[in-house]
Every structure is written in C-alpha cells, then in structure tokens.
Amino acid sequence: MRNRSWTDEATELLRVGEGFRLSDVDAGSHPGYGGDKESGEKDLAEGTEALGELQERLFAIGRVGDARDSVLLILQAMDTAGKGGIVRHVVGGVDPQGVELAAFKAPTDEERAHDFLWRVEKRLPQPGFIGVFDRSHYEDVLIGKVRALAPADEIERRYDAINEFEARVVASGTRIVKVMLHISPEEQKDRLMERLERPDKHWKYNPGDVDERMLWPQYMAAYQAVFDRTSTAHAPWYVVPADSKWYARLAVQELLLAALEDIDPQWPAADYDVEAEKKRLAAS
Amino acid sequence: MRNRSWTDEATELLRVGEGFRLSDVDAGSHPGYGGDKESGEKDLAEGTEALGELQERLFAIGRVGDARDSVLLILQAMDTAGKGGIVRHVVGGVDPQGVELAAFKAPTDEERAHDFLWRVEKRLPQPGFIGVFDRSHYEDVLIGKVRALAPADEIERRYDAINEFEARVVASGTRIVKVMLHISPEEQKDRLMERLERPDKHWKYNPGDVDERMLWPQYMAAYQAVFDRTSTAHAPWYVVPADSKWYARLAVQELLLAALEDIDPQWPAADYDVEAEKKRLAAS
Fold first, then answer.
1. What is the pLDDT of residues B160-172, one digit of tens each?
2. In chain A, alpha helices (H)
3. What is the interface pTM, i.e. ipTM, of the complex?
4. Domains of chain A, earliest start first
C-alpha cells in the first residue's frame, strides 16, 4: 500500500488467478482504492514522482554494469478503453528517454510472412528501459480468433507459443506486466458517441469500431480464453476496471511501481576513481 | 511573440545566418526574452499546452488523409549542455505516442560499414510525428573532425552530403529544427563537478568527458565549420545559449512551436458519414 487511499494491494486484487471469470468483473468498480476521483488524481501525481525516480534508477543500472533488468507493460483492451490515456498520463510522466513505445497495428505483408512473434521480438525493451506495447501478440489470439484470421489449431498453438516466449523474456531479465483495461459496452458507446459529436475527435473514429463492437460477446470469450491459457506465474494478467479513467490510470501506475520496486534498482557505483577525476576536472 | 515575456522572435534572433560567429554568442544570455527564471517556467508550462494541441493535430493529419508533414528536432551540444533536459521537459510535455526519439551513440560495426547517413535515414520521423535526434549525423563532422575519425576529404564530402540529404528530407514534408545548445566551459565544469559530487549522478559521468573537454577550442571550431557549411535556407541552425537551463528549454519550445505553427495542422474532416454512424452506433 503505497499511499493511504489504497486499502489493498492492486497487484493481488487485480491479478487473474485460478477460476477467474471476466464476466464477474464490474468495469465501473475501483478495487482496493478507497478514494475518489479527486484523491485519485492527487495520488497519481505523487505516484508519478516515485515512478520517475525508479525509472531513472532502472535506466542508470542499464547504462552502467551488466544488469539486464527491464519492464514491459502490455496493454490490451476494446476500443476507447483508454490505452492511449495510460501511455500519456502514466508512462508520459517519466523521462521519455527511458521508454520504448511500440504500437502494433494490423500486420504488414512482411510481418504476416513470419511467425506472429517475429515483429514482437524486435520491439522488446532493452535493459534499463520501460517498454510499452499498445496492443501486442495477444491480438493474434483475440481478433485472430474472433475473426478467424487463422485456423483454430493455429490459434491453439499460439497460446503455448506465447507462454514459452514470455517465459524466455522473463528469464532474460524483463518484468512483464500484462494489463487488460476492462470497460463496459455502455461506456464504450458513450465514448464512441463523443468522438462522433466532436469534430476534433472525428479522426479518432472508424466505422470499423462499430463492427468490432457488434462482436462484444465473442471478444469477451476470446479474452477469457487468453486469461485461462496465458495468465502464468511468470507473467500474470491483470484486469483493470476502466470505466473510471482515473482509477484505471492509478491502478496501472501501481502495477508499474510494483514491478520496479521488485527490481529495486540502486544507483550504480562509480567504475572510476571519483577523487582522481575531481582533480583532473578541476585542472581542466 | 507567443507570450508577453518574449520581446522578439526566437526564430529570428537565434538563427545562424551570414557572418555568424559562435565566439560572439554569450552562453549566459537570454536573447529575446525579457522575463526571469520564474516567468520562464510559467511560460514553459503554457507553451506545453500549446505544443500538446499542435502535436495532436499533427498526429491526426498523419493518421487520416495523405499529409506528409512531420517535425525533426536535431539536438547537438557539448556534454552536460542539457539535451536530456530538453527531451524531458520540452518534448516530454507532449503525448509520447506522437514522438519518435533516437539517441545516436558511437556507431556500431554494422553502422560503420555503411555510409554515415544510413543509420540516420532509418530513424527519420513518420508523417504526423515529432522526431528528436539526441546527437545525429553531425557527430560525423564534429567528433569525426576533431578526433580525425575520417580523412579530411571525407569530412569535406559530408557537409555537402548532409545538405543534399536534408534538402530531400525537407522536400518530403519534414520541418527540420537544428539546435546547438551552447554552454560555456565554466558552466560545464560546474555541471561535471556536480556529477562527481553526487553519488546518484556518478553513473552520468565518464572520464572520457574530461578528455573531450580538453578539446574545447577544437570542438568550437568544428561547430563553426558546421554552421558555415550546413546552415541552409531549408534547414537553418539555431544556437541557443544554454547556461540557463530554463532559457534553453523555453527557446527550444519556441522553435518547435514555430515549426508546428508553420505546418498549421487542422483537425481532419471525417471521411465517413457522421450522422449515419451515429445511428448505427445508437442501434448497437
């Protein structure tokens, strides 16, 4: 519990464990957080300070010495759930020099010619960095399954391939934080309608958004399958209720803070003679 | 003049034109700005709002329609001059989803096997993005010249190659903003000493920094040659006095704002039938 408005550990409450049912999650709830929007925004600003320092320490150990630690935040969600807001208001609060952001769109012909993990491997964060995937290899078992973009046995194969891939990534020093932002279909309708009502938001709307929306139950089933098959001990899923944007941002910030605190990066010691360098500098 | 503390256009005052002499620039001065540190920080926050909106508009036109516009900020400086602070406090104020950051280190063997512009070409910003180069192809005519990493005639060739390259990049829709952050050697000594005095800054110090520092006059001559040869009408250089960090940040923000205002990106019109989509969404 990092500050007083959290009554419980977000990492515990939001983690997808045995017997998890997505349909039991209330997208409008604020698990573990006793405060309101106002205290949430204050706590977010405080958390940004803490995240900023931890990120700088992580960056420092990645530059000096041979630490291999990094963090990878994977964001998945239905349209309008707020992935962009997480990137902007949570990740955007730390030094951009320590962040590697990858937004995965529909694969190109070249990407499609390779295994689905090929393009993902190339965007893994370097040591010392916080990587963020805005969509990810999970699209290949979400839209891939709902739209039958691959045969059923290939979708099956992918769950195991993902688990093996993530196990290797974790073993190489990366903390993986997998987040599904969970909104209700009613909230999505409001957010899409707002895009249609505001000319400065028209560019964010795509008629295909409504086509996907019509498949809501199929998408929820595909997410449930993802949780059943890929919420592992080394890379668990977290489902974050996201009808309240402020709560979702605060909760993802908590998950990132926990991952960084688990690494607990310390300022690296100088690998040169500090006193000798002071003299050399003074004489220069 | 975007706000009242600017008495003159930064784009005019800081631009490297005919007869420019780097040695005439006072690194501690605040050209065109009548305010102090306090007003500078307030103006920076205000400018961040404006920059954020322009950046989002730029991003929007890059997503929809066929605008090719982008902005490329090139940062060059002696060590400790504050490139990182510009990235963090100026660029870091806008949505990271619209920024592509490239930090160029000493070239790898693979990069060295290609022409010096090969690795740079690959990192040019996509349409709709603000690209930032933390160091750049100019290293190849700065440290490249000072340390004689390439024969003199190759250095000569590079100035022209850079001008041709940048002309092509500009013609393809990219505004190039080239900034040298100019600090005094005395200020650098203070900043390096601070790194040596604070254990949490030791990782930022490298004994090689003093070696480069010893070559200050040679570097200034190499910068002067860069300005003489590559400050072109399509991609002029700006020299920003940087002993006051707050001034340097404010000035670079002004230069970015001017580049974006020159593009003047407008929210794209919907390429779908807004009223029909409202009905379809309402029924979904």
1. 999 999 999 999 9
2. 10-13, 37-63, 83-89, 109-112, 118-121, 143-146, 152-171, 185-197, 207-213, 216-230, 245-263, 274-282
3. 0.93
4. 10-282 (3.40.50.300)
